Amino acid sequence: MCGIVGFVGHRQAAPILLEGLSKLEYRGYDSAGLAVRDGEKNAEVVKAKGRLSFLYDKTDGGKALVGSCGIGHTRWATHGEPSVTNAHPHVSGNCRASGSGEVESEVVGVHNGIIENYQELKDKLLKHGYRFYSQTDTEVVIKLVDYYYKKYRIGPIDAIAKTMVRVRGSYALELMFKDHPGEIWVARKDSPMIIGINDGESYIASDVPAILKYTRDVYYIGNLEFAKVVPGAVTFYNLDGDEVKKDTTHIEWDAESAEKAGYEHFMIKEIHEQPKAVKDTLSSIFQEDGIKISLPSSFLSSLSQIYIVACGSAWHVGLKAQYTIEDLCGVNVRVEMASEFRYRNLPLAKDSLVIIISQSGETADSLAALRKAKEKGVRTLAVVNVVGSSIAREADDTLYTLAGPEISVATTKAYSAQLVALDSFAIKLALAKGTITEEKAKELIDELFSIPAKIERILEDKGRIQWFASKFSNIHDAFFVGRGLDYAIAMEGSLKLKEVSYIHSEAYAAGELKHGTISLIDQGTLVIGILTQDDLYEKTISNLVECKSRGAYIMGLTSCGKYSTEDSADFSVYVPRIDQHFIGSLAVVPLQLLGYYMSVSRGLDVDKPRNLAKSVTVE
Ligand code: AGP
């Protein structure tokens, strides 16, 4: 969702801020703005609705904004429509009608997250003479800081601490105080923010790619902590205003991996990076001296129930893992959407495990679900891609996927890395439970390590999917059907198609179709059947034939050797053979390509689909 950047150093801030914001564009936004200070002078604010390029043009690539201390923001509207007035930065005084220009205000700031009690705070501030120019909750929090700052004539430390105690919700805040030139103050609760220091200069960002070019050693601000950032140094404080000591974390990702490297879009680049993401993840787990998943075998052997909790594609990973874990380990698995789990009073057995899956490690619902599980005293395991993210830090145990930075809003390589991370967990659990032998485990691990080369083979043949996508790019509806593990893959294929191509699509358990949804099948409706499971193959074929006899055009996605698919399907796609538990890692690739090429054929913004954000940090 919204992106935050900040810079204080010896160079002009605005070009650095604009560049940082461009690295966060993938998160989704509808307006952008900068505030820059030149020494003791007042901050100059510039905002623009729409693409970052408008802000770029307005400021002549940042050159028109002079000063070496500044903050920047891309906004994804929550409170108030996308507009220049509602765009950040916000100020404690009055904003000009244009939203841009020098501001007299005491406090200028940007904010990610949601202030839940903003109306109550706004009413209080109205009584104290404050007037509001925007509809945002951010303006309220900036004015609240100003209120405490002026009322008690206290410095930023106490004003920020008082504000943090008073507001409810989530925030990553960046503030500049008129009386404190050369300083940026930041505060955080449940919304990510990092600070990097290099060569006497300081960088702030809500997400790693924005500062990778400058430094890979970053500080993570803890929950309910705040900090003063000056050129080349940072001081952290807790809510009592006491200093907190911190060490930096080294980010392994390199700057190139967050660039397109000659590909037309991040999504296709990341689809091609899947062999590496899978291999790196597997290699980090299966090492010479054992399986590197920190849960002890003694805990796993007595485990009676697993809850997998996640959102979107990560939830689909859970659905797929459910089949593998139940089959290999004989342990019950429930898969829950984090947004539902967090508000349900699900009785959780003490000897159970809650697994939270999240690429970003910052998804608000998944984080809340994790906290709920911890409150109930259940052990938690996070499967996360972003090192140091909130979910990674708060879970009892963390299993990192090594997909590298994923920029495209539609996840591909992180999803694939999550699939194999959960498969690896299933093998470790099965060994602990004694449901497989060491020999069988070795066989399964070898199969897992064959995935990268097999994905390469599928990618070599992507031209066929491209052709198919261009032929069907005008359709209005598509149905993805499958049984068992194939159903979980159908869910992901359907989401990929709808999120990047805006084609309505639904995924159904093939056997469920005839209980209502089949009434939507008409002449020419595209039905994609996923048929990788030997024992369910005939059943799903029968369901596809039912669709075909009602006029549907059938695409069959199966494994090499199942050539009888062509008797029923109009178009068949084959993936290499592999152990049935892991074939989802192969079957999903043609579906990702289908979504991608449909989007390209329709001329859409593949990497930044409308209304979507990469990391959903609000409810
Ligand atoms: C999928 O393409 C989406 N980007 C979305 O469903 C995503 O998987 C979901 O929002 C969860 O995100 P997370 O993995 O960062 O928690």
Give the helices and strands, then pairings:
Elements: E1 3-8, H1 13-23, E2 31-37, E3 44-49, H2 52-58, E4 69-75, E5 90-91, E6 101-102, E7 107-115, H3 118-127, H4 137-151, H5 156-166, E8 169-177, E9 184-189, E10 194-198, E11 201-205, E12 217-220, E13 225-230, E14 233-237, E15 243-244, E16 249-250, H6 266-272, H7 274-285, E17 286-287, E18 290-291, H8 297-301, E19 305-310, H9 312-329, E20 332-337, H10 338-341, E21 352-358, H11 364-375, E22 379-384, H12 390-394, E23 397-400, H13 413-433, H14 438-449, H15 451-460, H16 462-472, E24 477-482, H17 485-501, E25 504-509, E26 526-531, H18 537-548, E27 553-559, H19 565-568, E28 571-575, H20 584-601
Parallel strand pairs: 19-20, 19-21, 21-22, 22-23, 24-25, 24-26, 26-27, 27-28
Antiparallel strand pairs: 1-4, 1-11, 2-3, 2-4, 3-6, 5-7, 7-8, 8-9, 9-13, 10-11, 10-12, 12-16, 13-14, 14-15, 17-18
The chain binds 2-deoxy-2-amino glucitol-6-phosphate.
